[in-house]
Amino acid sequence: MVRLAAASLAGTAIEFYDFFVYGTAAALVLGPLFFPTFSPVAGTLAAFGTFAVGFVARPLGSVLFGHVGDRYGRRPVMFASLVLTGAATVAVGCVPSYATLGVTAPVLLLVLRFLQGLGLGGEWGGAVLLTVEHAPVRRRALWASFPQVGPAVGFLLANGVMLGLSAGLSDAQFREWGWRVPFWGAGLLAAGGLLLRSSLTETPQFRELAESGRRASAPLVEVARGHWRLVLLTAGALAVGYAIFYAVSTWALAYGTERLGVSRTVMLVCIMAAVAVKGVMTPFAAMLGDRVGRRPMCLAGCAAAALWMFPMVALLHTGRPLLMFLGFTGALLAFITMFAVVAAYLPELYEPRVRCTGAAVGYNLAGVVGGALTPMVATASAGGAGPPWGVAAYLTAIALLSLGCFALLPETLPRPVADPALEPAAAR
């Protein structure tokens, strides 16, 4: 289990590094470089538009790779998704700016961002299921939380590289070539991730499904016919997590640097410190989820998020590093109260034959609602000299929507993931 958890964590960290480094670049430099004819606000909105394309692609990736995972195994998904995302990320770092290619440059960004999202849409399902389907029942949330630590590690890695470059280079150097270096580094990370995953074995549950001939022939069709309500509920339930994370990591970064005049370095340090706290607390929240259940943790996280969005925006608007850090940390702790257990919760809601497709589609559809729209809606509604209360109201509304969706979902603890006949020996 330690080896599986480590490989899953490393893989999701690398994939989310690729995804997050684009979000940071969109907040800092992509607008002026690829949309120079727009006003500063419009350029930022356009850059966040290319950022959103990745979220639109993620459900499509979950359909594509979910089919592979349910038909041919969880293991192939972890390799194919990593190769696709890594290659697309390296290519982003090679795209010339608008000054060189004209309108072709932002079009290429859109295409590559779409491919990034396609790969990430498959990564989560493969990594989580490889861990969940090996894990003992009573510790399933704990072991499944390690892939959920991966996004925090990827974010810290991506922004740490950006922070070092931003601090060590002049503004002109950073805008000319420095921002590209983290994208090029994705190739080395992907190669390391593939090497680490090369020794992983297929899950016992999938092997037994394959041997008994019970694999789904058309997983998406089965999910659409028998689980569509569950997919919509899980998408709505998880939307608040995406909204919170990208409000903190992407919109707040742009708002702090452009509207409040806070330096890039200070904003990145505040956000990275809050994300580090989130990453450390993830396994502890998961252990609590193994004791009290998945649904109570998710309901508590949604309620905390709804109560904290206005204080978070007020603290951000001060522009003071410590207060901003406190605002971000409170929001991300509410976030991880939910997301520490969803890696176990979602697979437990679906039967094994369609689990890779169903869980991944629900998870990534939430990203369209909560992740793709949040930076754009927040940027558009943050006008005026005072605190951006419209952003707080928007985030609070999403938290209440998610709270209602979680209330309609059943509890899955301590129900086994699969039929007893398909449960791994270590879990029985």
Report on the structure:
The protein is mainly alpha-helical. It is 81% helix and 0% strand. The C terminus is likely disordered.
Task: Summarize the topology.
Blueprint: H1 2-34, H2 40-72, H3 74-92, H4 98-101, H5 104-132, H6 140-168, H7 171-176, H8 181-197, H9 204-212, H10 219-226, H11 228-258, H12 264-292, H13 294-317, H14 321-349, H15 355-372, H16 374-380, H17 389-408
Helix pairs in contact: 1-2, 1-3, 1-5, 1-6, 1-8, 1-11, 2-3, 2-5, 2-15, 2-16, 3-5, 3-8, 5-6, 5-15, 6-12, 6-14, 11-12, 11-13, 11-14, 11-15, 11-16, 11-17, 12-13, 12-14, 13-14, 13-17, 14-15, 16-17
Query: Count of helices?
Result: 17
Biggest sheet details:
none
| Radius of gyration computed on alpha carbons | 20 Å
Mean pLDDT: 84
Shape: globular
Number of strands: 0
Class by helix and strand content?
mainly alpha
What is the helix fraction of residues, given as a range?
Answer: over 70%
The string of secondary-structure elements, in order, is: HHHHHHHHHHHHHHHHH
Short description:
The protein is 81% helix and 0% strand.
Index terms:
428 residues; 81% helix; disordered C terminus; mainly alpha; 0% strand; single chain
